[in-house]
Amino acid sequence: MPPKQMTGKGRTVAEPSFASSAIQAFASSENRSVVSAVGLFAIGVTFLHSSWAEILLPA
């Protein structure tokens, strides 16, 4: 198991928190297409599950 803290030049530097590293991963340009696809899928599912989906039905 890796150490909880890393040392560098005589000072103790704490590891970034889980939330900070997760936000950095979502904001990374490498993951932009995956995050966009998941977001659009979630918006589509939300729309189809709502009452607004009735506008898609033929008259």
Oligomer: single chain
Give the CA-CA distance, first to last residue.
62 Å
Average pLDDT taken over every residue: 87
The figure for the number of domains is 1
Rounded to the nearest angstrom, the radius of gyration is 21 Å
Helix percent band: 40-55%
Tell me the number of helical segments per DSSP (H or I, 4 or more residues long): 2
Number of strands: 2
Pfam families: Tom6
Keywords: Membrane, Transmembrane, Transmembrane helix
Protein name: TOM core complex subunit Tom6
InterPro entries: Tom6
Any overview of this molecule?
- This is TOM core complex subunit Tom6.
- One of its GO terms (biological process) is protein import into mitochondrial matrix.
- The chain crosses the membrane at residues 34-53.
- Keywords: Membrane, Transmembrane, Transmembrane helix.
- InterPro entries: Tom6 (IPR020266).
- The protein is α+β, with helices and mostly antiparallel strands.
- The chain has one domain (5-56).
- It has two helices and two strands, in the order E-E-H-H.
- A two-stranded antiparallel sheet has the order 1-2.
- The N and C termini lie far apart (62 Å).
- The model has no long low-confidence stretch (mean pLDDT 87).
